[in-house]
Specification:
Layout (H helix, E strand, L loop, with lengths): L7 E5 L13 H6 L5 H15 L7 E5 L11 E4 L4 E5 L7 H13 L18 E6 L5 H8 L5
Parallel strand pairs: 1-2
Antiparallel strand pairs: 1-3, 3-4, 4-5
The protein binds FE2/S2 (inorganic) cluster.
Length: 149
């Protein structure tokens, strides 16, 4: 795998949280002129990466809907040639933990950050993983190999 790749943490700025948890609807946030929790989470993580001494080892990008609305707030992290991960049920209160997770993901050779290596708030946040295409036969072989748990 190439060494000049960087992970990107995509944060859904349109998420409102989990409806079953009693959060307000998107329309209620919008009618009140208030920032949605997903946008608050993006701002909080972006502030941390902007302030990081020496820079964060990953980029942060806002996105509109990761199609995981029922389990929002939602984020995804991906880097070519690694496994990508979709996380749900995260909110502005876990911004610091997501920042730490981004560091652990960047340091991982495969993208896998085991549960015990993730902050407590993210132990049950993984919704799915997905292959992120790389640019080499080695990348393709990595995603096609048999995984044992
Ligand atoms: S609005 Fe955030 S995942 Fe759909």
């Amino acid at each position: 795998m190439s060494d000049n790749r960087r992970p990107c943490l995509y944060i859904c700025t349109t998420c409102t949280g989990v409806a079953a948890d009693g959060v307000r609807s998107a329309a209620e946030y919008d009618d009140a002129g208030e920032q949605r929790p997903g946008a608050m989470l993006y701002d909080a993580v972006k502030q941390q990466t902007d302030r990081a001494n020496g820079g964060a080892p990953f980029d942060v990008q806002p996105v509109v809907c990761l199609s995981n609305c029922e389990q929002g707030c939602s984020v995804a992290i991906a880097e070519p040639g690694k496994w990508g991960y979709l996380l749900g049920r995260v909110g502005p209160e876990v911004a610091e933990d997501l920042f730490a997770y981004g560091h652990a993901y960047a340091a991982s050779g495969t993208g896998t950050v085991m549960r015990r290596q993730r902050p407590d708030s993210l132990h049950h946040a993984i919704v799915a993983r997905f292959p992120v295409p790389g640019d080499s036969a080695e990348d393709e072989a990595f995603h096609n190999r048999t995984v044992t748990k």
